[in-house]
């Protein structure tokens, strides 16, 4: 897109995904992790031995702290998986 076209650009309409059955609004282009963070969901996993909360940490796909399941596909990184309309996210 050229800079001149960007001047008149408007955001696409927002949509929803569900996280453990809860509706979560998404701005087009957001990652699932960004949408969850914006909705106040800050942790959704725990560490194996001490049960400490985990969610977004690095935010760039390196640490794997943000794993979740999207539409039945397990072990996706929330921080680097783009949300799509109707995505069903489960965290356990
Ligand atoms: S937050 Fe580190 S891989 Fe997603």
Question: Care to give the gist of this entry?
Answer:
With 92 residues, this protein is of the alpha+beta class.
Poorly predicted segments = none
Q: Please report which band the strand proportion falls in: under 5%, 5-15%, 15-25%, 25-35%, 35-45% or over 45%.
A: 25-35%
| Total helical elements | 2
Q: Could you name the CATH class?
A: Alpha Beta
Biggest β-sheet description: 5 strands, mixed
Q: What CATH architecture would you give?
A: Roll
Question: Would you list the SSEs in sequence order as H and E?
Answer: HEEHEEEEE
User: How confident overall, as mean pLDDT?
Assistant: 95
Please give the share of residues in helix.
Answer: 10-25%
Which fold does the CATH topology refer to? Ubiquitin-like (UB roll)
- The CATH superfamily is known as 2Fe-2S iron-sulphur cluster binding domain, sarcosine oxidase, alpha subunit, N-terminal domain
How many domains is the backbone divided into?
1
Strand order of the largest sheet: 2-1-7-5-6
Query: How many individual β-strands?
Result: 7
* Ligand names: FE2/S2 (inorganic) cluster
**Morphology:** elongated
User: Radius of gyration, rounded?
Assistant: 15 Å
């Amino acid at each position: 897109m050229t800079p001149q076209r960007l001047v008149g650009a408007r955001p696409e309409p927002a949509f929803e995904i569900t996280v453990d059955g809860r509706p979560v609004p998404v701005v087009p282009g957001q990652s699932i992790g960004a949408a969850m963070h914006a909705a106040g969901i800050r942790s959704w996993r725990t560490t194996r031995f001490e049960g400490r909360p985990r969610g977004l940490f690095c935010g760039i796909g390196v640490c794997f702290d943000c794993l979740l399941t999207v539409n039945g596909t397990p072990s996706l990184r929330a921080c680097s998986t783009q949300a799509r309309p109707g995505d069903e996210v489960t965290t356990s």
